Amino acid sequence: MAEEIINRVANNTKLFTIDLEDYYPEGDRILFDIKDWLFEGFILKEKDFRESVSNYDWSQYQNKYVALHCSTDAIIPGWAYLLLTTRLIPFTKKVVVGSLENIETILFTHIIDKLDVSEYQDKLLIIKGCSNKPVPESAYIELIQKLQPVAKSIMYGEACSSVPLFKRK
Asked: DSSP readout, 46-57?
């Protein structure tokens, strides 16, 4: 009878894996394009814009993450995004100006800022690289900046095929 195969990597209690996907905030991400509220898609007429904002059903954004942007080359005054935000605040989880990627970047920056890394003091860490959710590259940069001062070593990837990044002397 063949000897049982033991996965020593999986059973290694000294190695800690950090998967940013575990911190992914659930909720729909919406890209809100204001071009349809501009005259010919390019000119913001304050009276018309304010009327559109007042008559719009904002409740459809309940518990969603919203990125405000304009897909045309129109010059949008800063107050326009602020006005939209005042209407979205009662409903949304978060409002940003920019792209859907901006939402992810801002969310993960906030999450990593609040992350308590004291449990990783002098530990061997692997930052898991593959993700099924849209974790932005900047989140990995933020994470390693937070972990490096406390970790003994940091690797990237999977336990069976990790790339060494940092080792404290």
From this structure: HHHHHHHHHHS-
Amino acid at 23: Y
Radius of gyration of the chain (CA): 22
Its pTM stands at: 0.82
**Cα(153)–Cα(3) distance, integer angstroms:** 33
- Residues with Cβ within 8 Å of 104's Cβ and at least 6 positions away in sequence, in order, are 29, 134, 135, 136, 139
At 116-146, the pLDDT tens digits run: 999 999 999 999 988 788 899 999 999 999 9
